[in-house]
Amino acid sequence: xxxxxxxxxxxxxxxxxxxxxxxxxxxxxxxxxxxxxxxxxxxxxxxxxxxxxxxxxxxxxxxxxxxxxxxxxxxxxxxxxxxxxxxxxxxxxxxxxxxxxxxxxxxxxxxxxxxxxxxxx
Length: 121
Fold this sequence. Notes:
Elements: H1 3-15, E1 26-34, E2 40-42, H2 43-52, E3 56-67, E4 70-80, E5 86-98, E6 101-111
Parallel strand pairs: 1-6
Antiparallel strand pairs: 1-2, 3-4, 4-5, 5-6
């Protein structure tokens, strides 16, 4: 698969909570780096992180661009907290594909609906 098809499929698999299908999209030497925390996950660790994420509900793609073996996806993710309150997040994922599978993913996550600092509007 090229980057566009692979990122589209990745979002579908995550949105469907198909954790058994997720590893099939990732190379054995896959890594995911979270820019905002500095964490780096290997293939099994990243699958486990997604499968075990508390309250995860949906992942909806808002934008996807790709060229050959590189692609970027922007999505909105929803989950619920322990009190049942809905939480919203935005994620930008930058992917490198090798041999038809995801080789590297770099992600930036943020909460949505934050208020800008005073005086910046």
